Amino acid sequence: MKRLFIFFAVMVLFIMATATVMAEEVTIKYVCWDYSVVPEKQEVVQAFEEKYPDINVEVIDVASKDYGDKLTIMLTVGEDIDVISIKDMPTYSAYIKRGGLEPLNSFVEKDEDFDPAIFKGLMDEIKVDGNYYGVPYRSDVWILYYNKELFDKAGVPYPTNDMTWEDFGNKAKLITSGSGNDKIYGAYIHAWKSLAMNLGVQTGEHTLVDGEYDFLKPAYELYLKMMYEDKSVMTYGEAVTSSAHYASQFESGKVGMIYMGTWNIGRMISDAKAGKHDVEWGILKAPHWPGQKPGVTIGNVTPLAINANSKKKEAAWKFVKFFGGEEGAKIFARNGILPAMKSKAVLDVFTSADGFPENATAALEAHTVYLEFPPHPNGRAIDKILQEEHELIMIGEKTIEEGIEAMEKRVKEAKEW
After folding, report:
1. Nearest alpha carbon to residue 353 among 289, 273, 410
2. Which of 51, 276, 315, 399 is deepest in the core (most CB within 10 A)?
3. What does the pLDDT look like over 338-352, one tens digit per residue?
4. Which class is 22-139+301-364 in CATH?
5. 141-298+372-415 has which CATH code?
6. What is the pLDDT of residues 72-96, one digit of tens each?
């Protein structure tokens, strides 16, 4: 009888312990874009769940092109979301302004295993009014990609890590040849305003939210010359109407150079493995302006944030910290994605990835990185204005001076809203 009593007592304790464990399990909802087509995010989520078996991650996957609009609707109607992947700084600023993101200072201060210094100032760059609202997990810098074969065929020396923007334009002109279907362009200038405005921000003297934009003039002068005089790049109108994509243009083997972010490294590697291209490519530091040392460039930061209305913020913080920390960073690096946390161990993983260009590590060594678009309460409106005026300058509907004047007038009005 005594043994039977002990058996039942043990069983009751076991059931209670199991129930307690089950009660402690939590599911957090993580919203991001293109989850199903990017293995690195899937691998990070899997690794996180293995480390924290009491936390399940339910992923809400949204197509990249629809992400901004759908996420705004989700937050507006109060959909149950815990962790948010932030796609750009104007959106980040807008969500902070409306109170949609949880300040993270208290989590940072009490978490002895987390130090913002691992991001070498990036977390401080996206602080707003003294508050942290996001933990970076990716931080891309802009670099130069070049097609070695096209330079060899033209008998033109390869571009270098120490090259001015004028040099870039000259080399593009030298390797341009042919016409029609046989046309070889020296470079491809994508339709994003970043392709021109980054060159102005790269001086380090201005930002895109300052409201004065004369500093953009040299970049537009360079690009308009390349399009309409040298004919070394596809015109802006052709790029837009043909829906040209920077990756497909470069991978076609008919474009000598593209100025683009490090996110394209992973794509070049994976597309080569998939047999989508056989381009012999290399990467270099971004060109710079006269008087600047090589290694000054523009950076983009991609953070994770916690929904201010989340009821599972402690679990969400663990996920955000893991995603941006060294464990998550190594997974991103292994997949050819440059993480925000760049320890030597992480960079060694990144540069040793199968398919990474030989002798190209120096391209990633930037001594100064300026944020492309800093947080600002009216960031989305400013961003939209700049893109619209950028398009009009690039298609010749407005002169550079007229476009810059319009930017300044419209941005001043937007700041007064």
Report:
1. 273
2. 315
3. 999 988 899 899 999
4. alpha beta
5. 3.40.190.10
6. 999 989 999 999 999 989 889 999 9
